[in-house]
Write a structure and sequence with these properties.
CATH superfamily: Aldolase class I
Strand content: 5-15%
CATH architecture: Alpha-Beta Barrel
CATH class: Alpha Beta
Largest sheet: 8 strands, parallel
Shape: globular
Helix content: 40-55%
Number of strands: 8
Number of domains: 1
Distance between the termini: 45 Å
Strand order of the largest sheet: 7-6-5-4-3-2-1-8
Length: about 325
């Protein structure tokens, strides 16, 4: 069977039974301990100079996102302009990592970015539900890549995963990875639908075994999206995966992260769990839209000592 698993773990994907035994053999998650550690790390005090650094780092890690049925070319062009130059009054403001759009808006985003050092990410595979035949999902992916997507954000088949059809999910990720070509692949678990922390740990390892470049919490389209606890669990997974295989995988929490305070808490989680190697936009992203506005307002407050007026940032 084809595999993207590192050599150190290639045997665990040799069969359905081997994959099941491996995933169910992972250590069980102590839910109380996990949530307590996430809460404790969230109370860390960040001083002014460190806060300024963290705000700029967070801005540089944003996948600035619009994923609405009412998206228009004009909205996507405006989003691209904001990604390249978030604060027109301060050219020292870093650009965001990427603009994230539906496949039919990839070409518009690519043209609007006009060669800027901002990636175009595209959701694919019948986002957000993922309820489509594999050939449809692969066509969705290929269309996005052909239009210029640098990154693909795919959703797993949660129904298959929850039914214990791990090999089906694994093979689907493999196929999407191949269809993505040179584009980096982010695998979305929709952690709010996986029911247990043990399932989130299993999904994390399953995605990494199949060759995910990033593992991502959520679509942002359900009630429970990124939380400090589920992100901490995924950060532990990528740390442990690199220790076993030498392969580094990124993490992307998405949905519900709206304030600078929230973003900085997540950066503390990264530093204290996975380590400083992940404190870079190549390895950690925020899937967000309104977060950038708050980061810009907090950035100006640090620079000037006062908050800006309501017209200082654009409303997304």
């Amino acid at each position: 069977m084809p595999t993207n698993a590192p050599a150190a773990l290639s045997d665990v994907t040799a069969s359905d039974g081997a994959l099941r035994r491996f995933l169910h053999g992972l250590p069980g998650v102590d839910a109380v301990g996990l949530e307590a550690r996430a809460a404790s790390l969230g109370t860390r005090s960040i001083k002014t100079s460190a806060k300024a650094y963290a705000i700029d780092l967070a801005i540089s890690m944003i996948d600035l996102t619009t994923l609405e049925g009412a998206d228009t070319p004009g909205k996507v062009r405006a989003l691209a302009a904001k990604a390249v130059n978030p604060d027109p009054t301060d050219r020292t403001t870093p650009h965001t990592a990427a603009v994230c759009v539906y496949p039919d808006m990839v070409a518009t985003a690519k043209a609007a970015l006009n060669g800027a050092d901002v990636k175009v990410a595209s959701v694919a595979t019948a986002f957000p539900a993922g309820r489509a035949a594999l050939d449809v999902k692969l066509a969705d992916t290929r269309d996005a890549v052909a239009a210029g997507a640098d990154e693909i954000d795919m959703v797993i088949d949660r129904g298959a995963f929850l039914a214990g059809k791990y090999l089906k999910v694994y093979e689907e990720i493999l196929a999407v990875k191949e269809a993505s070509g040179s584009a980096r692949l982010k695998v979305i678990f929709e952690t709010g639908e996986l029911s247990t922390y043990d399932n989130i740990r299993r999904a994390s390892w399953l995605g990494m075994l199949a060759g995910a470049d990033f593992i991502k919490t959520s679509t942002g389209k359900v009630a429970v999206n990124a939380t400090p606890a589920n992100t901490l669990l995924m950060l532990e997974a990528v740390r442990d995966f690199r220790e076993q295989t030498g392969v580094q995988v990124g993490v992307k929490p998405a949905g519900g992260i709206r304030t600078s305070k929230d973003a900085i808490k997540f950066l503390v989680l990264v530093n204290e769990t996975a380590g400083a190697d992940w404190l870079d936009s190549h390895w950690f992203r925020f899937g967000a839209s309104s977060l950038l506005n708050d980061l810009l307002m907090q950035r100006q407050k640090l620079a000037t000592g006062r908050y800006s007026g309501p017209d200082y940032v654009t409303v997304d």
